[in-house]
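Dear Dr. H.,

I hope your travels went smoothly. While you were away I took the liberty of generating a structure for the chain from your last submission, since the lab meeting agenda had it listed for discussion. I wanted you to have the full record in hand beforehand rather than looking at slides cold. The sequence, exactly as received, is reproduced here:
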Amino acid sequence: MTDNNPIVPVPGVAIPWYRSPVQQAQAVSAVTALIALFPKVGAVLGIHTPDQVAIWVESVFGIATLLAPIVGIIWRAGAQLQPLTWTKKAAAAAPAIPIQATPPVVVSAQPNPPPKNP
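The corresponding predicted structure, in token form, is as follows:
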């Protein structure tokens, strides 16, 4: 049986990792386990209640959010495929990257109508 209408995956709504409830829950679990195993770590960090763990994790994720663009710029500067250069001279010296244009895939939100039987 051939399928005249193949299923095309539709991209979902993405969220950054630091806003993911799963990632936040995993971080809270990791910090809670660390403090349960090593109570002095909690005292050093000033964490004494489960609510403080959640606040601390959100704060750390917020700091990571601030640092992410800086780290991205540094990594991109060292990239081989498509480097982000620091100067115009370096940009002019960077090799051109050949690309092949492909037609865009159009995804319709409307379901296909059922086939008509003759």
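Two observations you may find useful: The chain has a mean pLDDT of 75. Helices lie at 21-37, 39-45, 50-77, 88-93.

With kind regards,
E. W.
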